[in-house]
Amino acid sequence: MAPFLAYEDRGGSGDPAATPLVLVHGHPFDRTMWTPQTEVFAASRRVIAPDLRGYGASPVTPALTDFGGFARDIEALLDELEVASCVLAGVSMGGQIAMECYGRFPHRVRGLILSDTSPVAETPEGRTARRAMADRLLREGLRGYADEVLEKMVAPYADPQVKAHVHRMMTATRPEGAAAALRARAERPDYRELLSRATVPALVVVGADDTYTPVPGAEALHALLPDASLCVVEGAAHLPNLERPERFNAALEEFLARVDARV
């Protein structure tokens, strides 16, 4: 049976002991947000980057109502691709989905990379705002939203090509998929207790100028995890893997080497 999700599967011809890397994009993006990482790390290990349900080339329906559905999709993809274990990386909403995955199949996760994300459940005000935004995107599409948030997703001083890529991903996202994910995100659980018991190493990354998930939140996430390192990326906002890929990749490479060396 063909996998439900569209995905990119590269590498695997390098060191057979290198742990596969699975990359989970954020909202409202697609797997191309990981291009600076897939191009580099596929030389040394297998790298898999799916489009989440409702995003990119993956189908929108049936729409998901909670993060458990996203995690089940990823687990099914790992089954189809015969990936027994991996390092799981996620940015923003993708980081929260990575947390959900760890809660559901921890035996398959050898390391967590959590970038510009939060383990805290949504507040009542936040739930109301996300539902209202879902309604707005269904009415208006994503162009107006993309115009408004572009310079919060990436810093105002970001490279124009990076800005164009981010804007293009947002405007290409189908409103039905984005709205469903926002409703799921509004109902997400609190992952702090789960992460406080994590038995795998973690890397927490945050852009120094991120206003969605500021540095103090990343520091709190880092302190929560039993075995974690923290990387604050200067000159970046919410998407440091795109804004400062060399710095992001250096931290990622160091972390992956550490995971690979674990028995």
H/E element string? Answer: EEHEHEHEHHHHHEHEHH
Indicate the proportion of strand residues: 5-15%
Please give the alpha-carbon distance between the first and last residues: 33 Å
Shape: globular
Oligomeric description of these chains: single chain
Low-confidence stretches: none
Total number of helices: 11
DSSP strand count: 7
Largest sheet: 7 strands, mixed
Binned, the helix content reads 40-55%
Written description of the protein model:
- This protein has 263 residues and is of the alpha/beta class.
- The protein has helices at residues 35-41, 67-80, 93-104, 124-140, 143-153, 160-172, 175-186, 192-196, 215-224, 240-243, 245-261; strands spanning 7-10, 21-24, 47-50, 86-91, 109-115, 202-207, 228-233.
- A seven-stranded mixed sheet has the order 1-3-2-4-5-6-7, with helices on both faces.
- The chain starts with 6 loop residues before the first strand and ends with a helix.
